[in-house]
Amino acid sequence: MKRIIQFHISKGDKYYTAEGVDLPVVTQGKTLDELAVNIQEAVDLHLEGENPADFDIAPNPSVLMNFELPQIHA
Question: InterPro entries in the record, alphabetically (predicted)?
């Protein structure tokens, strides 16, 4: 069972977007702080009334946010 729920973070023109790797959850925020709050809320809502084990997720999981940087040209 997974103890960490992963999210892939990217930056658009105005918003940061988070796409769940382990859950079908997508959210956005104007700042990374706002995005972190929105991710927590989205995960809580997605798992509300559900058994996390049905998603192969351990109780009280952590969230890991991976941020994609623009390509670097060396």
Answer: TTHA1013/TTHA0281-like
Q: What is the pLDDT of residues 23-72, one digit of tens each?
A: 999 999 999 999 999 999 999 999 999 998 998 999 888 999 998 777 77
Alpha-helical regions (H) of 4-55: 32-47
> Domains in the chain, ordered, with CATH?
2-67 (3.30.2390)
Q: Are strands 2-11 and 57-67 parallel, antiparallel or unpaired?
A: parallel
Amino acid at 2: K
Distance CA 18, CA 61 (A): 17
**Bridge partners of residue 26, in order along the sequence:** 19
Residues 24/41, Cβ–Cβ less than 8 Å: no
Strand partners, 35: none
Write the CB contacts of 44 (distance below 8 Å, at least 6 apart in sequence): none
